[in-house]
Amino acid sequence: MGDALGQPSEIDFTWNELCKCAITVGRHRDDVLKYGPFSSFELVWRLSMVFANLREDPTGSLVPTDAFTNLDRTEKGAVSFFLGNCFTKLVLEKLFGVPWLLHFDVYRYSLNAVLAFNRRPDFVGLDARHQWAVAEAKGHSWGMDRHTMEGAKRQTRSLRRIDGQYPALRTAVGVWFSGTGTTAKIWDPHGYDDDAQDFPIDMDRFLRLYYEPLIVHTELLQTQARPQGQTGKLRRSIEVQAFDAQLFVDDDIVTSYAREVPLGQILIAAKTNVQDSILEVMAFLDEAPDARATADTPDKLHLLVDKNRFSDIGEAADGVTVALGPAWRAENMRRNPADRSG
After folding, report:
1. Please, which pLDDT band fits residue 171 given cuts at 50, 70 and 90?
2. Which residues is 137 bridged to in the sheet?
3. How far apart are alpha carbons 135 and 128 in whole angstroms?
4. Residue 22 and residue 49 in contact, taking contact as beta carbons nearer than 8 Å
5. How many CB atoms lie within 10 A of CB 6?
6. Which helix (H) or strand (E) holds 262?
7. Radius of gyration (Cα) for the chain, nearest Å?
8. Residue 42 phi, psi (nearest 5)
9. 307: exposed, middle or buried (C-beta count within 10 Å: 0-12, 13-18, 19+)?
10. Are 42 and 33 within 8 A, CB to CB?
11. In terms of DSSP bridges, do strands 123-126 and 132-142 run parallel, antiparallel, or are they unpaired?
């Protein structure tokens, strides 16, 4: 992406957006969420990982809590791994417009694919213009060395085509706590390795796997649709018990899932306007390298990146929203967990 991401910059986001990423970031098949009425335990666990280990500083930057700094090395590693996944989801959805992100293994298990280096990326993603992305997430407590990022980059290059398309984005995202807050390093390696393999993915199966934990395992199907927000859009919701939070999913997604209507019909828009998709601009540049020399295409990429850095993914294309109550207000989240009010 060149200069569009070549300089240090900031991404502006809310606790609601981060918690949405914590709840929706692609999960492995054996996660706790599959256990029916006990699924709320995993939602609580995911939100508690954010609540217990992150806080705002007076400038609004995100820093570790005392609870995190007092963990032992192994515990910090586990928390950092989870937060690395959350922030990768945030970067992919907010910066690149990729709302559907699924753990590669969730889909791959039935294909028995053998990939280059016997390594595989963490995530496969999809945007609203049916452009595919490949992502590898790395989360460390302090610092992110070049060797780790090089390894992450190699993992993204082990896939050649997805559903017959070359991914518009391959990105390695390394996340760590720095002296000024939470920092992400984003590498976007171009191309694929000589022994990379194609990945025959089915878009509708992919989307059903994304929504299954949010619709089936949370028992959202048993709830009533109600008008929500200023638009009055019909949504279904569940309370995340003990965590002052609600999960909302658009009713048309829930009902389409229940009726086994192909979700791509209602979720994936026609490819009509290249300006609406960073990934489509990137795919265009990849297919027509001469476009890089034109005056407007690099500027278009700059504008899209800058716009997305301050966009709100609370009501994005995936139709999933997380609403937080007073326990998550800024003044409360600037305290360490033990000092926060309920």
Report:
1. very high
2. 173
3. 17
4. yes
5. 8
6. none
7. 20
8. -70, -40
9. exposed
10. yes
11. antiparallel
Rounded Cα gap, residues 145 and 71, in angstroms? 22
Helix then strand then coil, % of the chain, to nearest 5? 45, 20, 35
Whole-angstrom CA distances from 330 to 17, 244, 245, 249, 253 are 14, 14, 15, 25, 32
**What pTM value is reported for the model?**
0.89
Give the 3-state secondary structure of residue 131: coil
- pLDDT tens by residue, 241-274: 778 999 999 999 999 999 999 998 888 754 444 4
Which residue matches tokens 């192994």?
74
Q: Both tokens of residue 283? A: 């795919």
8-state DSSP, 223: S
Backbone torsions φ then ψ of 226, nearest 5 degrees? -135, 150
> Which residues are 159's β-sheet partners?
197
Number of Cβ atoms within 10 Å of the Cβ of 219: 13
Q: What is d(CA 293, CA 290) in angstroms, rounded to the nearest whole number?
A: 6
Longest pairwise C-alpha distance within the chain = 57
Helix 73-90 vs helix 15-24: crossing angle, to nearest 10:
100
Q: Which residue(s) pair with 174 in the sheet?
A: 138, 185
pLDDT in tens, 211-250: 988 888 788 888 999 998 777 889 999 998 778 999 999 9
Question: Per-residue b/e over 188-204, b at no fewer than 16 CB within 10 Å?
Answer: bbeebbeebbebebebe
